[in-house]
Amino acid sequence: MRCAAAIVILLFAASAGAADLTPDCGAVPGWTQKRNARVYVPDDLFDYMDGNAEGYIIYGFEKMTGVSCTSGGNTIHIDYFLMGSPTLAWGVFTSNRHPRYGVETIGMIGQVMPRRAAFVKGRYYVELAANQDQRDALEAYAKALEPTVPGTTKLPAELKWFPREGLDTASLRLVPQSVLGLRMLKRGFVAKYADVRVFLVEEESPEAAAGVLAKLKERLSGAAPAGIGDEGITGKDRYLGQMCVARKGAYLIGAVSRAEGAALEARTKTLAARLP
Known about the structure:
Elements: H1 2-19, E1 32-40, H2 45-48, H3 54-57, E2 63-71, E3 74-82, H4 86-96, E4 109-112, E5 116-121, E6 124-130, H5 135-145, E7 167-175, E8 188-193, E9 196-202, H6 206-219, E10 221-225, E11 231-237, E12 241-248, E13 251-257, H7 264-274
Antiparallel strand pairs: 1-2, 2-3, 3-6, 4-5, 5-6, 7-8, 8-9, 9-13, 10-11, 11-12, 12-13
């Protein structure tokens, strides 16, 4: 009983410590904290970012702690968003990254722009915003704070399964719900290859994945078998165009395109072969 109680206390302490992690304005010389730190949870995040909070909550947002740092007339707001998992934290980053700017190796992944920066490490998505062009200070903060944030710097394993040839790397993202606009595909990864969109969805079990595949088969017109993975089908969706989808264990993988003659089966088969 004592051992069990000690384990519970340690787990609670670790959880509380992670949730209470707060940015340090002093991480970059010449900057000081303005006012007290801010703290938000899912129930009141709308008070802080009205109109944009849902974009964080759907990725498993749990808690945010932030500070505003000042230097002369310059201000940088730094917010730590604790998400449900490292993969979900990466997902928030991909939904917010600017497509015209490159990414950097800060933590798991990062991006620095003239007035905004962000990076991911472990379950944390860290966002920095300046009141004017402060690229150097934003980069300095991101690199100074990254070592103080706990967690993994490894990208989600699923990303390695998408073949790099022809991949639009900026398009690879985690869709938190309704992949391809289909409610039955609850959460998964999507990427673009020329005129083809490829997706990967993990279900709770092979049986659950088989059930979703059966529903997709009913949805597609002209559905025909495809020899991919454990079972596969091809057909045409009224809104998405031509579709190929297959099941491999608990995973659903596939490709869609409105272009005639798109290599949907080949893309799906290649992705299936890379899954464990």
